[in-house]
Amino acid sequence: MARGSRLLSLALCGLMLSACAVGPDYQRPDAAAPAQYKEAAGWRQAQPSDALARGAWWELYGDPVLNGLVEKLNSSNQTVAQSEAQFRQAQALVRSSRGAFFPSVDLSAGKTRSSQGTGSSNSSLSSSSSGIRDTYNAQLGVSWEADVWGKLRRGLEADKASAQASFADLAAMRLSQQSELVQNYLQLRVIDEQKRLLEATVQAYERSLKTTENQYRFGVSGKAAIAQAQTQLKSAQGDLIDLAWQRAQFENAIAVLTGQAPADFKLVATRDVPALPQIPLGLPSQLLERRPDVASAERSVIAANAKIGVAKAAYYPDLTLSLSGGYSSSTYADWISLPNRFWSVGPKLAMTLFDGGQRSAEVERTEAVYDQTVAKYRQTVLDGFREVENYMVQLKVMENEAGVRQQALDSARESLRLTENQYKAGLIAYLDVVTVQTTALSNERSVLSLLQSRLLASVQLIAALGGGWDGATEPVAAK
Fold first, then answer.
1. Which of 441, 447, 453 has the alpha carbon at shortest distance from 198?
2. What is the rounded CA–CA span in Å between residue 169 and residue 20?
3. How far is it, in rounded angstroms, from Cα 322 to Cα 316?
4. Which residues are CB-neighbours of 64 under 8 A, at least 6 positions away?
5. What's this model's pTM, rounded to 2 decimal places?
6. Residue 329 in 3-state DSSP?
């Protein structure tokens, strides 16, 4: 009874001591965060909430084909699949760390055959054979490490933070791949529109060439006008041919993003370019709330902070409580019987007295890793604010530019109409028509290029905000 009381008291002491944990408790590092953005009013400083549902932000573009492609990406993209597998590895490490808090139970059973020499060189073979002995053993052992200094708890804390960072990395990779697919799709649709423009232009230039040839036959215009018309037609046809490989590259990229071989994938041309989404004038600040890369960087800081505690716990002794018992016999018949039982129980303290500075070096290393992750977290926050500022000012400037470009296009179209009428009436030379046609086509293509840039900037802004601005509040749990 006295022995049992002492063991119980020792175990209780171990449990009470395990309430403490060496190493610093985590505090979120300060990061430079403005109260609002220069380019938009109504922003407030955010709190990390990357677990909020982002919703199907790509549906803002109102394209059913695009919606289907993104859904295919979500289920079949191989880069996302790699990140998902890494997250599952991190989850397994957390379960392994939790298992260290429980006792380990080992069961062993076996038979050994041994012999010991008689010590006499004159012993006969028969007498040596009589020294062979069989031993049957069955043993059950229980061992439990008391987490006196918090080494196991700090390890679990680090693994949980790493798993959460891996979950955020998965979300960041998925968002990145979605953004890349949407940008490729939008550029492909703008190329389809450019193709229709150049096809119509080629047809117009062919009509102009035919008219010029007729006028040359009647002596109204010279041969130089025919050369000018042919030059302009062939240049437009060359630009039209050049679009084919550009479209093929975007189509192949979309195929790979959706987990398909380019040879098995085809996007049929449509006559509509997805509409530019309407960006709200006042957006709630969701940068730190929605960006998974910011959340991943912060959780890496948590993991690095916890690992400092693990390193410092190496200075203290490990306390292990063990219990074992079983049966041992030289004969199989009465192997499992009361006289053959044995048992042992007791605590064990283990401590390194000298290691040549290895533990102090490890503490310094983990502290340096912590400083590194803090700097990375702060830089990630700064980069996030910079990206949002850049895309917002880009969209604002391009919106103003679009109005001016459209006015220039309207004027070029009107000038072309008047110039063609004058040429048909024989009032001007064809060279004047060529100049105006070139100017009109350049303005048409400039408007389309600007639309493409605005569409891409809108996708990049959505990604910089962490996946939209719909204000969804449904949490997404890390499994």
1. 441
2. 32
3. 19
4. none
5. 0.80
6. strand
